[in-house]
Amino acid sequence: MMALKRYSMWLSLAACFVLAASGRSPAQTATLDRKADGPATRPVVRHHNRIPYDAPLIDPPGKTMGGISRGAGSNDSPFVVVLAPKDGGITIKSRPRLYWYLSKMADERHSIVLAINRLGIPGQTAMPKTVFEVQIPQPAEAGIQCLDLAQPPAGEKNQLTLEPGVNYEWVVEFMIHDLHDKSLNPYSRCALRYQPPKQDLINALKGADASDLAIACGRQGVWFDALAALRDAIQSHPQDTQLQGDWEDFLAEGGIAVDHGRIIPPAQQ
Length: 269
Prior knowledge:
By secondary structure, this protein is of the alpha+beta class. The protein is built from 6 helices and 10 strands, in the order ααββββββββααααββ. Helix content is 27%, strand content 21%.
């Protein structure tokens, strides 16, 4: 009996040592490894998480509306996914970079519609108003795509500056059925809000490289800018497999599952 107690004690100490080495408490570990909404249908390999995402303390912009397009569950159908948490995301830039994912190329050349709708001030009821819309050709290849509001595809004539504290809806629609039934088009959308940074974050960002910028933004719940900084780090060091692991981990923090570099459709998560 005493031997069994000593064995149990050593197991407990070993578990505490592992958690301490990872920098997480048992509660944090359970939170970080839990799926956001419902169980995953397949395991997602986790790396050591160097860039955590702490959801903002302020009210989130709102639930992702629409999420993934109709027909996204079919392996033969292309789909699009906005890379953002289901509760929406925060940016500290009035003209942020917004990332999205295209699963595969369509058989024919079709266009993509990128739009941003103004939803209004939190707590107030207002009709959505489209304040940005551009139609672009299908990208040259599938994978991660970017809408840079500082350099929009249509140039200066289509510039948009987000208002602080206002909720917006960002929409990506793949116009596969633009001449038939548009309701069948793959689409994805999410809520976002521009929130000017507080002084402590401004101080943390001074002189920071891309990786440190991603860490600072992630810790304060600034999703879109953390993601953009992490993408910058990957592009600067494309052979760094640890950065790729950081990217997948960070997406997982926002409820976006990745399988060997490919985004898993929300309908299958």
